[in-house]
Amino acid sequence: MVDKGLGGHLEDVPELLGLIKEMVGVGYVAFDLGLGPTDLMSSINTEEVLADESVQELIQLFHQFTLNAAFLDKQESNYEAMCELVDQSAPGMPIRFLIPAAPASFKTPKFGEGIAERLTFVKNTLKNAYLNEAGFVINCTTETLDENAKKHLDESFALKFPVDKDDILNIPYGRSKSKNLMTAQSVMRVSHQITELYSGMSGQDERRRNPDLCLDTGTMVNLLYSDGKLYWVPFLKDDCVFLEEAFVVPRPWSMENLLTVRGEAMERSVDYLKDTACMDCPYFSSCTEKGITNIMQELSIKDCLVGLEHAH
């Protein structure tokens, strides 16, 4: 993790590296490694993290390396320095950038067009690594999804990038300090609004279909390391990170411990929902695997969190 204050501890990376190696060794695919959440260009420990040998070895185990950056800096020299750092730490790697935004960011073309120009500069400047994908991480809350949200989101999706564009509609409530009734209602309302939004996108890019409405997700495990702890991460829509003790993987960080704590948590969530309509839903196994049922238990929700009634 790169951060302005919290961050992680580099001495934990070898143990994390060992876990990923163990999982890859038995057939798991290490698909995407994300470094964040702070902007890569403004974090206080970016160079320290990327210079670490264990971090560099970890990067090479994955198919793709994802970085967070706002792309609002107007100094080309700063992008040159960033590209040099990425080239040194991730040679040969496909790079993906996630760019924070809100629906209202796209009310004028200037915001998106400026970012597209800077992405083109980065694409042309990287030498050892290469720019593979980029996308907006659009924070969706009850405040940002106003009456103009659909119009602004359509404009954001239509914006062209110099590489494949992989936008994410993000539900950020998982990091809320209090998980009260208001938080639960907000998460449900926004999830339903996004489902309704996706339902009008037939024929668009596959990645813009509702990721919760998937019957066969395979065995997907999402991990997050933060401030000395490793979490398995439930996945509502594209991201809903809950930094709660219920999702902590105990040490030592082995595949056995990871799958045990994850499996036990899933069983508890199934027991929690045993008398609900979820049990007869064709998407129930998918919701269980993705940890959506665990979010429901954490927030004391028993109505459909995905919002199937809003999918057409």
Summarize the structure in words:
The chain has one domain (10-310): TIM Barrel, CATH 3.20.20. Strands 1, 2, 3, 4, 5 and 6 form a six-stranded parallel β-sheet that branches. The chain has a two-stranded antiparallel ribbon with strand order 7-8. The chain contains ten helices and eight strands. The chain is an alpha/beta fold. It has helices spanning 13-25, 46-51, 53-61, 76-89, 109-125, 149-158, 181-199, 255-272, 284-290, 292-298; strands at 32-35, 64-68, 94-101, 130-139, 164-165, 168-170, 223-226, 229-232. Strand 2 (64-68), helix 4 and strand 3 (94-101) form a beta-alpha-beta unit.
Q: What descriptors fit this protein?
A:
alpha/beta; 38% helix; 312 residues; TIM Barrel; globular; single chain
The CATH topology corresponds to: TIM Barrel
How many DSSP helices?
10
Strand content: 5-15%
Spatial extent as radius of gyration: 20 Å
Would you identify the regions where 5 or more consecutive residues have pLDDT less than 50?
Answer: none
Q: What order do the SSEs take from the amino end to the carboxyl end, as H and E?
A: HEHHEHEHEHEEHEEHHH
Query: Count of DSSP E strands?
Result: 8
| Architecture (CATH level 2) name | Alpha-Beta Barrel
Question: What's the overall geometry?
Answer: globular
What's the overall average pLDDT, rounded?
90
Please tell me the total number of domains: 1
Summing up helix and strand content along with how strands pair, one would put the structural category as alpha/beta
